[in-house]
């Protein structure tokens, strides 16, 4: 089979094409032929060597996609050959609360990922895809979509009428925007690009703020909300934006920290606000198979579609990475097999 490997992890140029023997499904495993895979920010960090710890140069990257089951191990009855499936990237997190042990089986990081003609997945982790959903609408759910679901539904229990603030127009932010809207919430979104904010408006954003035009964007949000602020903040900016997020949060608001973006500023510049406004801050890491199942049902029931910026062919995977890294896009960057 054809595949891409991470190589020396010193930049996007480290990605290298290879040919391997097609794997065989071991006990409790299934083989899946990817049809469409989606890039996320940590895919860039991984090949640059800033995420994932020490991994072999032969690791196959990419953590989310959709494909068709081509083989199942003896005794596997949960899925059948020919079924279209997805899989959360924490393959051992089936249900229940988060446990750090889930980092031990992270598809595309600790275990080979989707950027190959065949991927080996635990049968217990995969989920059949409803026939009504297009590949484009499920290929990007396992990371960005599932994380947004965990943040909004599982952690924050978002309510109709609440204001959700999304930082930037990345995968998690756009997924949160669309989920929040179908759940009856209002959405504010930030970006440094007016063109991207126009697209965000078209996707349903109620408030848009250019953080280059308004460097003190938290104050601008407060101004546009009459001093109320955001009930929920999807904090994807990292350490340097957390202070602004705290300043933008409403009384009894919730901030969900997503991702591991480092920074130079103090992580908590306004400690007193936690008490005076009763703010809750919580970090999350993706979600479980059970959450993914709920997400798939919600996507199907509400006909939630995925915004796709550009789709590349498998042979063009390095170009897909470069396009993603340029950060001029709005929507998912995908690779089709």
TrEMBL record:
<dbReference type="GO" id="GO:0004022">
    <property type="term" value="F:alcohol dehydrogenase (NAD+) activity"/>
</dbReference>
<feature type="domain" description="Enoyl reductase (ER)">
    <location>
        <begin position="7"/>
        <end position="335"/>
    </location>
</feature>
<dbReference type="InterPro" id="IPR020843">
    <property type="entry name" value="ER"/>
</dbReference>
<dbReference type="InterPro" id="IPR036291">
    <property type="entry name" value="NAD(P)-bd_dom_sf"/>
</dbReference>
<dbReference type="InterPro" id="IPR011032">
    <property type="entry name" value="GroES-like_sf"/>
</dbReference>
<dbReference type="InterPro" id="IPR013154">
    <property type="entry name" value="ADH-like_N"/>
</dbReference>
<keyword id="KW-0560">Oxidoreductase</keyword>
<dbReference type="Pfam" id="PF08240">
    <property type="entry name" value="ADH_N"/>
</dbReference>
<protein>
    <submittedName>
        <fullName>Alcohol dehydrogenase</fullName>
        <ecNumber>1.1.1.1</ecNumber>
    </submittedName>
</protein>
<dbReference type="Pfam" id="PF00107">
    <property type="entry name" value="ADH_zinc_N"/>
</dbReference>
<dbReference type="InterPro" id="IPR013149">
    <property type="entry name" value="ADH-like_C"/>
</dbReference>
<dbReference type="InterPro" id="IPR052711">
    <property type="entry name" value="Zinc_ADH-like"/>
</dbReference>
